[in-house]
Amino acid sequence: MSDSNSPPPSLYASREPIFPKRVKGNFRNLKWIIMIVTLGIYYITPWLRWDRGPQLPDQAVLIDLANRRFFFFWIEIWPHEFYFVAGLLIMAGLGLFLFTSALGRVWCGYACPQTVWTDLFILVERWIEGDRNARLRLHRQKKMDFRKIRLRLTKWVVWFLIGLATGGAWVFYFADAPSLLMDLVTGQAHPAAYITMLILTLTTFFFGGFAREQICIYACPWPRIQAAMMDEETLTVGYRDWRGEPRGKHRKSEGAENLGDCIDCMACVNVCPMGIDIRDGQQMECITCALCIDACDDVMAKIGKPRGLIDYLAFSDEPGERAGNDPRPVWKHVFRPRTIMYTTLWSLVGVGLVFALFIRPEIEMTVAPVRNPTFVTLSDGSIRNTYDVRLLNKHGEDRPFRITLTGDPTLRVQLEGTPYETVDVPANATYLRKVYVIAPTSSAPAASERTEFRFWVEDLTNGDRAHNDTFFNGRAN
């Protein structure tokens, strides 16, 4: 029986830092390639130029919040076209479902920003402090001598610079990169830019340098919902315990012939960035980065055993493999009704977005009747309604637009401030103009009547047209 005066046991254990060992292999090389490509895209993209003419920004990818526009190379998204962004988000979600159902948490293991930046921070840490054993010794060293202080400060400075570059690259997506860089250096940038950079710098520094696996385990919701995307056909990193057990290190001792292929070298544990033992079975913490596969394959090669003790495998193959049969081909796991459905939905959304992009008009108009007053009786007895007509010109140069109406031959249109029906609309701009519609006395509708008609706008340069239906309100004489 425990002493009633003793303190209760703690429900929480302090974090023990994880120091993954360096490993070589196909999956590690793939992670290096993905890290270089993704970081290269992130840091370089704001500096790419794209000529759109003299009146538009020449930055290839720009989120122009001031003018409420998104530029992506030759594509320009306006505020009312947010459905394109929504479609891309739907495609991203379906893509995540597709890859998860086929290959488990492959996104987490290879392309997630937390994984990519953590890999980069661990690489810096290894360069400065050494591989796993050297970092462990430095961590366990109680004395803060000059060498430990120097190594730690050097590492933290490099981490901070990476975080600063991360925050800096992010703000460059929202303004002209060269101009903003000059403003940042000279202290003339908007405070929002400095605040955003500071937040992203500190979060990158903390998440990639200190939190690491804890972000994946505690902060990210995806480990908790990935099970809904996976089934027994999903290929995920696993341990063939029927081949590896029972474990044993001494291969020349008595009874060694009864041992499995696993020599309990802990190589798979030492290289794991999450600090788990894949031999304990499927775990929420596993991000399927496959570094344990590289480590195990290397050991198997050294002891003359076939690779694949730890590998991408499907639970549905386990009974057959235990019985000595070969696993089914990978393509049979990947191409199955569930993944085909996700691929079909993903493709349909993509095709729909491309189709909508090519058929969207270059000119648009919206019409809003002025309600106060609903109509005005002029001195000659005719009735006039007023409308706010908003014209959108998506071309890169000013265009002359003509406004007309159809539906009632007795109605005539007049633009405020001019006797003409044409107006010059600036390039890549929305232009608001008051338009009057007048009905002569003899044809003015009764107070309870509403005459429907259609506004038309025509681009006199190329003949493109757009229309909008509305009503004319009047009263009896």
From TrEMBL:
GO cellular component labels: plasma membrane
Span of domain 4Fe-4S ferredoxin-type: 253-281
UniProt keyword list: 4Fe-4S, Electron transport, Iron, Iron-sulfur, Membrane, Metal-binding, Transmembrane, Transmembrane helix, Transport
GO molecular function, one term: metal ion binding
Bilayer-crossing regions: 30-48, 82-99, 153-173, 193-211, 340-359
Top-rank taxon, per record: Bacteria
Classification via InterPro entries: 4Fe4S_Fe-S-bd, 4Fe4S_Fe_S_CS, Cyt_c_oxidase_cbb3_FixG, Electron_Trans/Redox, FixG_C, Helical_ferredxn, Ig-like_fold
Record protein name field: Cytochrome c oxidase accessory protein FixG
Organism: Antarctobacter heliothermus
